[in-house]
Design a protein that fits this description.
This protein has about 600 residues and is of the alpha/beta class. The structure holds adenosine-5'-diphosphate and magnesium ion.
Length: about 600
């Protein structure tokens, strides 16, 4: 991996300033800055942070600021004398890191801070705090009864979101069970009541992703917060950063081995440096069994997954030096206490000069001895002036050099907070819309089901209809059949009349045969006249026939054969054609006048007579 060098200052050799002294931060390092009060530790730590922000923006930097001084990183350095320190004149331009530093204060303490010295507030949810962190916060050893009670209490709540009050209530209930002594329960309960008063807990807290932002130094200013709050934050951050980075490393290596691409979206916590002032409070040498488990894990195992650490302390002898046996670099400012110098000797990662004690005691402000792992011997360094202004607690207290801050720099963090709130709102909206879309699609599904059901029903009805049509058609044909049958049954006029015709024809035939065969020509002639005049007087008849015809004989014959009848009215004889009566007598069935007419026509119509 390519080196990422940061420039801390210039080497001081035999009273002369030499080359720039660099430190490679391409990988997260573990370093310690020690020195007595006012020797320049915070100043040097600030230079390291400035350099990292400028040259290594891939990593995130989280500072637990116990003194409340790091906010000054936002303002450009106006101290001309400082900027013109011999050896650095014209090399360090004044500049503030307003956009690259974000100061958060504990929500419950926000009123204690001056506006313009912070960008936002910090809260955490109680369930973020693990058993180990609670132990360190409450300064409990894991085998104490209170610790055991705490463990059973947290197990009961598991990963649920809960408030401190709920923990307190659960402890009050515990008093009834008699499993723990009253003393134990009440002691733990009062600890949680104290924790509640810190004003850092809420039901919606920040996550590590809110705090570890690449290229940004998140300064958690706890200078106005209760003492244990910093212990809580150190433990919490050490644990969360370590866990997150370890998980990320595991996912990445699994992806590498398996050759699969894995989504690390919400787990993508950058390499993070944790910067802790007054470090001896969190990694104490005397109370090995208590308090410091998450930080010890972080120091010992954090480097590989990418957890950087910078511990700053004025009491190196009070630090757990055993844990610090394998640090990457050590920056030692002026020190005089023998025990402290011994501690430095113990943890230095490279050989130290033989006359260490006298060198350390002579170091001026802003001068330090730098020991880096893998290097020959520790170097004396003149730390470079800061780009940003430096506020020293001691200076404030002594009212020295009241610094002019100048104009308040524009802060992007208000905008950042606003955008983050917007993102949260949009996410909630998205979820709502997704839900609505979900319910819409379930509605659509419901309607589709209904539609399908209706379609099915329609199809069935169609089928029924076509069945009915078919049956109707069948009925129709039956009706037609029946109709034709009925027709067949109806009297056949034509046939009937033909039958009658036959009868009439045969009557006519018989009569004609009689006329032709049995009548002489005179009688035939008379009959044909009668055919035209069916009722005629004898006189008229006589007049209308030729004289040679023997009329009387003919009439006699016709009368005998009943073709005529003679009637006498007023002494006048009338000859009347009697064919109708004759025909009626010959017929087996009654005949109408028309039938009679028909027969008569056939008798005369053929013209034989
Ligand atoms: N490299 C430096 N260049 C110039 N002034 C420095 C330098 N280092 C420290 N000082 C000054 O020394 C004083 C104490 O430094 P500081 O870092 O606050 O001490 P401490 O070791 O207590 O953290 C401050 O007034 C600061 O301005
Ligand atoms: Mg300091």
């Amino acid at each position: 991996m390519a080196k990422v060098n940061i420039y801390l200052g210039r080497e001081k050799k035999n009273g002369e300033l030499g080359d720039w002294v660099t430190l490679d931060v391409s990988k997260p390092r573990v370093g310690v800055i020690v020195g007595k009060r006012g020797s320049g530790k915070t100043y040097s730590a600030s230079v390291l942070i400035e350099e990292c922000l400028d040259r290594n923006p891939r990593a995130a930097y989280v500072i637990i600021d116990i003194m409340g001084v790091y906010w000054s990183l936002k303002y450009p350095n106006k101290n001309v004398k400082e900027l013109n320190t011999p050896g650095f004149k014209g090399l360090i331009e004044p500049k503030g890191y307003a956009d690259k530093t974000r100061v958060l204060v504990v929500a419950g303490d926000v009123k204690k801070y001056q506006k313009g010295t912070y960008d936002g507030t910090l809260t955490i949810t109680p369930n973020m705090v693990s058993f180990d962190v609670w132990l360190s916060v409450f300064n409990l050893a894991p085998d104490e009864p209170q610790a055991m009670l705490l463990k059973s209490l947290l197990d009961k709540f598991e990963d649920k979101t809960y408030s401190i009050q709920e923990l307190i209530d659960a402890l009050t209930e515990e008093l009834e069970t008699g499993r723990y002594s009253k003393q134990t329960i009440v002691s733990l309960r009062s600890k949680f009541e104290y924790a509640k008063s810190w004003g850092i807990f809420s039901k919606t807290g920040m996550t590590l992703r809110d705090l570890a932002i690449p290229g940004v130094a998140t300064i958690i200013d706890v200078s106005e917060s209760s003492k244990p709050v910093s212990a809580l934050l150190v433990g919490l951050l050490a644990e969360k950063i370590y866990d997150a980075r370890k998980e990320l490393a595991r996912i990445k290596s699994w992806a590498k081995v398996s050759g699969r691409s894995v989504s690390i979206e919400d787990k993508n916590i950058p390499q993070t440096w944790l910067i802790i002032e007054e470090a001896h409070n969190f990694l104490p040498s005397r109370e090995r069994t208590k308090a410091s488990t998450p930080l010890i894990t972080y120091v010992k195992e954090g480097r590989h997954p990418g957890c950087g650490l910078l511990l700053v302390s004025q009491e190196p002898a009070a630090l757990d030096t055993k844990v610090l046996k394998q640090i990457d670099f050590l920056l030692v400012h002026n020190l005089s206490h023998k025990q402290d110098v011994e501690a430095v000797k113990f943890i230095a990662p490279s050989p130290l000069p033989r006359d260490l004690d006298s060198i350390l005691i002579k170091l001026g402000k802003g001068e330090a001895l730098l020991s880096v792992t893998g290097s020959e011997v520790a170097k004396k360094v003149k730390i470079r002036p800061k780009h940003s202004i430096h506020i020293a607690r001691a200076d404030i207290a002594e009212d020295k050099d009241v610094v002019e801050l100048g104009e308040q720099p524009f802060s992007i963090w208000n905008e950042y907070e606003r955008l983050k709130r917007e993102v949260v709102e949009l996410k909630a909206k998205l979820i709502e819309y997704q839900k609505r879309a979900g319910s819409k699609s379930s509605l659509i599904e419901k309607y589709m089901n209904e539609i399908n059901k209706l379609k099915h029903a329609l199809e069935k009805k169609d089928q029924v209809i076509s069945e009915l049509n078919q049956r109707l058609a069948e009925k129709d044909s039956i009706i037609r059949d029946l109709e034709s049958q009925i027709k067949a049954l109806q009297p056949k006029k034509y046939a009937v009349s033909r039958l009658k015709q036959r009868l009439l024809n045969s009557i006519a035939g018989a009569l004609r045969d009689t006329i032709i065969n049995e009548l002489n020509s005179d009688a035939k002639s008379v009959l044909s006249i009668l055919g035209e005049h069916p009722r005629i007087s004898l006189d008229d008849l006589q007049k209308s026939i030729p004289s040679k015809i023997k009329l009387l004989k003919a009439l006699e014959k016709l009368n005998a054969k009943r073709f005529i009848r003679i009637e006498t009215i007023n002494n006048k004889d009338y000859i009347i054609l009697n064919l109708d009566n004759l025909i009626r007598r010959l017929s087996v069935e009654p005949l109408s006048d028309e039938d009679i007419e028909y027969v008569i026509e056939r008798i005369f119509g053929l013209g034989i007579i």
